[in-house]
Amino acid sequence: MSGGATPALLDVLCPMHLSISPSGHITHAGPTIQKLRPDRVMRGERFLELFAVKRPRGIGCMADLRRACDLKLHLQLRDAPRTELKGVLVPLGAEGEPGAMIVNLSFGISILEGVRDYALTNADFAPTDLAIEMLYLVEAKSAAMEASRRLNQRLQGAKIAAEEQAFTDTLTGLKNRRAMNHVLGRLVTGNLPFAVMQIDLDYFKAVNDTYGHGAGDHVLQQVARIMVEETRESDTVARVGGDEFVVILPDVRSDAILRSVGQRIIVRLEEPIAYNAAICRISASIGTVRIKEQQRRSAEQLLSDVDVALYASKHAGRARQTFYHPGLRAGETCRDTGPGRTP
């Protein structure tokens, strides 16, 4: 080469160039194009054995390639990864060996894939190459997208936390009335079997009056723990009032299961609860409604029925479970009750 067009100069101006001899051998490879095959020295290889010319079609020898000078070439590396490149051939003419050429290559619109696949940086391109501007834009976009992703994650986390707080009773960690209404509304429209227990603590007011609200809060927390332990993960346990609880049990298909759950809760809540030096004693009255498959009942009617069953348990002596039946509204004796306990 003459006129200052040395390989070192071309390496700076065109780091993806190749110098090709008249015989079609690569005599020099720019530093960036060599990075595409770091384990294979390109110098000395035949250009057409390393690259396939996809367009223009019909190029099979160096004579064909020389006729494609000044045309845009679409090339592909023959071995994996079969990266596609764009290129333009320029004959050296009088300034170099007759028949020698330089081909300047680029990734074209595949620049992002090329940078990713070969771990290239802005140092691998000429300072005036538009690829540098694109890389800066991509980097800025990636940084903005990452910042946006992190912000969205924080916002989503805050939203989930706020929703969870809105559906949680702060004292016991159970669901609250809003959560109960949400779950109940979904079940009553689903035409699937489920059951609802309304549980009211007996003698809880005496605990508050005798030992103070600190003792009352402690008792409520222990009650919440027991109810969670005696129900399934799929069940919803909610505190809906001071000492009022609701348990929603999806996919329950027999009264026997409900009797067993209710009895376990009653028995465990009759166990003394220690608070400092005091011993707190409570019990539980339960009203239960079971909804069979395809049985229609509104949430309002369901809550009314379970409330009637609860007060039937209260009036029958407390510490027992009553299943709702229409006769309860007419004052009939409650059925399916357990033994009570007097204060």
From TrEMBL:
Q: Which Pfam family, giving just one, matches this sequence?
A: GGDEF
**InterPro entries, alphabetized:** DGC-Regulatory_Protein, GGDEF_dom, HNOB_dom_associated_sf, Nucleotide_cyclase, Rev_trsase/Diguanyl_cyclase
| Domain GGDEF stretches | 192-326
Kindly give the Gene3D superfamilies that the UniProt entry links to this protein. Answer: 3.30.70.270, Haem NO binding associated domain
Q: Which CDD domains match?
A: GGDEF
Coiled-coil positions: none
Q: Which domain of life is it from?
A: Bacteria
Instruction: Provide the protein name.
Output: GGDEF domain-containing protein
Origin organism lineage = Bacteria, Pseudomonadati, Pseudomonadota, Alphaproteobacteria, Rhodobacterales
